[in-house]
Design goal:
Elements lengths: L5 H18 L3 H8 L3 H8 L7 H10 L4 H7 L3
Helix pairs in contact: 2-3
């Protein structure tokens, strides 16, 4: 069975990692700002976990952008 959205999750994760690194922030520190666990953030960045809408909002807020901006950064 093919998991729908897997490539999109990977693209979103790569965008999160790129933007986090632009800020010069560690995964641990960024996870704290987003109010998620560091291991969860790592899984997001690798495209291994699906983000809930509330977590999309948290990550986008931490980047000071709209959720649509985060998706745009991922090319979605």
């Amino acid at each position: 069975m093919v998991k729908e959205g897997k490539s999109e999750l990977r693209l979103l994760g790569e965008a999160i990692r790129r933007e986090r690194k632009k800020l010069g922030v560690s995964q641990e520190d960024f996870a704290e700002v987003c109010e998620v666990h560091r291991t969860y953030l790592g899984q997001l960045e690798r495209g291994e976990k699906n983000l809930s809408f509330s977590n999309v909002l948290r990550v986008a807020k931490a980047f000071k952008m709209k959720p649509s901006g985060l998706l745009e950064k991922a090319g979605l």
